[in-house]
Design goal:
Helix content is 29%, strand content 29%. The chain is an alpha+beta fold. It folds into 2 domains: 2-129 and 283-289, 3-Layer(aba) Sandwich (Aminopeptidase); 136-252, Aminopeptidase, CATH 3.40.630. Strands 1, 2, 3, 4, 5, 6, 7, 8, 9, 10, 11, 12 and 13 form a 13-stranded mixed beta sheet that branches. Helix 7 (235-249) links the parallel strand 11 and strand 12. The chain starts with a strand and ends in a 10-residue tail after the last strand.
């Protein structure tokens, strides 16, 4: 068994290889979700350390401190004892007063390690619903309002438009055209799954970015958005249905998405359910407070 540590998601492909092998049976982060997280991160790489455990050429566990207070973890169920090693590494690698770990409720091979390391499950935090649907018996493609059209990104002008609508939807000024262009170079990005809805004036007003993992045959929706002034026109459903058909045409067997599952932000989940997605799991967050020098535990 070998452990390698990095400043940031340097070994992203190694981490993604585990997601390709075991998602969604173990883990709630698709390989494309990891690519999106790495490409859209606002923290400097040295503030987001990672560690990867492997045997031979096979990745069997990894941990990623996406912030000093937030650990993402994935462990091959065949190596459950590594969960404790990942947690121990993360606690050494952060100087935060508390650390949170979010896992899928179905990842029972991680819960005993979390308890053994003093992490406590909380119930007061928004959670994500892990939804999926087979890529068969797909909904028909929707008829768009007059003048609107959906197509994949094609060129630099589309990249500028796509980044602009993302910023408008999510108030994310760090998603620049340059950053979006760089993300397009990260596996498993493919432009035919990055669908954009254009208004009659030719402006990008909605999008549904898909990530298709050809290893697992699983496609992911992440991220998705519609400009406020163009909502309630069926664009989200239309671009989502188009992405399902694109995944199926590529040979995919399953589509997944993880919207908020709590009552605080219900609309996206309802849209996905209208496209045939159903619950397969949900996330649960575990937290541990530390006694650091000058910082009482629990503060």
């Amino acid at each position: 068994m070998r452990r390698e540590e990095y400043a940031g998601p340097v070994a992203l492909r190694a981490m993604q290889s585990l997601a390709s092998r075991v998602f969604p049976q173990a883990g709630w982060r698709h390989s494309g979700d990891l690519a999106w997280a790495a490409a859209s991160a606002v923290s400097a790489p040295d503030a987001t350390p990672t560690a990867v455990w492997s045997t031979g050429d096979t990745t069997v566990a990894w941990g990623w401190l996406e912030s000093p207070e937030e650990l993402t973890i994935q462990v091959d169920p065949a190596y459950p004892d590594l969960a404790g090693e990942v947690l121990a590494w993360a606690q050494r690698a952060t100087d935060a007063a508390r650390l949170s770990v979010t896992i899928g409720a179905h990842e029972t091979h991680l819960t005993s390690a979390l308890a053994a390391h003093g992490f406590v499950q909380g119930n007061d935090k928004p959670f994500f619903a892990c939804l999926s649907r087979p890529l068969t018996d797909l909904p028909l493609l929707y008829t768009l309002p007059e003048g609107y059209r959906i197509r994949p990104q094609r060129d630099a002008a589309d990249v500028i438009e796509r980044a602009a609508v993302h910023r408008a939807v999510w108030n994310s000024p760090h998603i620049t055209a340059e950053r979006h262009a760089a993300m397009r170079e990260v596996w498993p990005y493919r432009s035919e799954f990055d669908l954009v809805a254009f208004s009659p004036e030719g402006k990008a007003v909605a999008y549904c970015q898909g990530w298709y993992d050809e290893v697992s045959g699983v496609g992911l929706f992440e991220p998705v958005g519609t400009a406020v002034e163009h909502r309630r026109r069926g664009l989200s459903r239309a671009v989502g249905a188009a992405l399902l058909h694109a995944f199926a045409a590529a040979g995919g067997g399953l589509a997944t998405v993880s919207p908020r599952g709590d009552a605080g932000y219900p609309i996206p989940k309802l849209v996905y359910e209208s496209l045939g997605f159903q619950a397969m799991s949900r996330t649960r967050t575990y937290t541990k407070a530390f006694r650091r020098s000058g910082t009482p535990a629990g503060n």
